[in-house]
Amino acid sequence: MTLAAEVLRPPDDEPEHSERPRVLVVDDEVDLQELVSRALRKTCDVTTAGSAIQALELARRSAFDVVLLDIMMPGQSGLEVCRTLRRQSAPGSLAIVMLTALDDSENRWKGLEAGADDYLVKPFDLRELSLRVNHFALVVRQQRVIRAQVRALRELVELRDDLTALVVHDLRNPLVAVRLALQSIELDCVLEPEQRELVNLGLRSANQVMDATSDLLQIRLLEANRLPLRCEETDLLGLTLGAVEMVRLAAHEKGVDIRFEISSAIAAEVDPTLVRRALENLLANAVRHTQGTIDVEVLSAGGRVVVSVADRGDGVPDDLKDNLFEKFGSVALLKKNARRGHGLGLHLVRLVAQAHGGSVEVDDREGGGATFRLLLPTHHRTA
Ligand SMILES: Nc1ncnc2c1ncn2[C@@H]1O[C@H](COP(=O)(O)OP(=O)(O)OP(=O)(O)O)[C@@H](O)[C@H]1O
Ligand SMILES: [Mg+2]
């Protein structure tokens, strides 16, 4: 069976749709129990209870889809039974219909407030009763199936993420070995220019895979709140400069110039590795999407640091803006437009910003292009 079929199959512990609805009729009047049971028996499996205590005992022992509950009973009232049943059952797993002889709004209101889904005023039309009970039974069973499918989907997503993390983790060691091997060839061997070019290409490709794998691992850990921030007083100008240097070669190859105005020192208490990776992602995007100049700026104001990366590309398309920072948020649209992208870079940037109590935003740049801003508090507050 495929994973999708597995998810869509009703789980073993849930009743199939084809099974008859299970109904509990609770009323101290035996005649009424009999009347209602007869009306429902054609389509439902009916159990009767003559008191609150008996009803609660039966509900504890078996799972019902619908409970028809009289309000006025000696001893515990139907309203109390209703409250107890609601407390004991998962939301949406049981429908409760109050049966009342009192057609006054006060009791209707009390019944609904106690958690009833509906009420019927005696004497009621038995065909209407049957239709309502079958309708509620269907809704309850559909909700059970949906809940089971949501559970199964959550487990699948967890499994997928765990497998991704495992594969990514196992890729790293061989990748490090490939990088080291290429680096020592580059350093120790006498190479023809074309050979050197090929070794460099191999190194750049290995670095790209390494970055992508680090991003995936960090996203997984940040999403699970399992990546403790290692915050330290960091020179933000130096950090940004380092990130700019990382993309300088790619920019140069495209003829893109990166302008970075260095002002007075700006420090903040951040996790330098994560913030540097976030900046590299913003800069790599800017280089990929621009033909002109990229302006990088670091400012400090009002207890926060703002690093902005402004390019002269086509700007972020409007249809991408809503989901730009979501995980894989851009992938569906990019696919539709036959463009490529993992849709992970900006998600990582946002996770890093949020982990620091900061944020990331994007604006159309005046004169064309996009401006991304990473905003980080100067001082880290531990949660
Ligand atoms: N500076 C930019 N100018 C225009 N569009 C941009 C810019 N930065 C990002 N985008 C758009 O947003 C999309 C999502 O960016 P994101 O960095 O999340 O993923 P990606 O670059 O496609 O892949 P990766 O996960 O490798 O970074 C990009 O594919 C691109 O269409
Ligand atoms: Mg990117």
Biggest sheet: strand arrangement: 2-1-3-4-5
CATH architecture annotation of the largest domain? 3-Layer(aba) Sandwich
Number of beta strands: 12
Beta content comes to 15-25%
Q: How many separate domains?
A: 3
Report the C-alpha radius of gyration, rounded. Answer: 32 Å
What does this structure look like?
By secondary structure, the protein is α/β, with parallel strands linked by helices. It folds into three domains: 3-150, Rossmann fold (3-Layer(aba) Sandwich), CATH 3.40.50.2300; 155-223; 232-377, Heat Shock Protein 90. Helices cover 52% and strands 17% of the residues. It contains twelve helices and twelve strands. The protein has helices at residues 3-8, 30-40, 52-61, 78-88, 105-113, 126-188, 193-223, 236-254, 272-289, 318-321, 331-336, 345-355, and strands spanning 22-26, 45-49, 66-70, 95-100, 118-121, 232-235, 257-260, 267-270, 293-301, 304-310, 359-364, 370-377. It is elongated, with a radius of gyration of 32 Å. Bound molecules: adenosine-5'-triphosphate (ATP) and magnesium ion. Magnesium ion (MG) binds at residues 281, 284-285, 345.
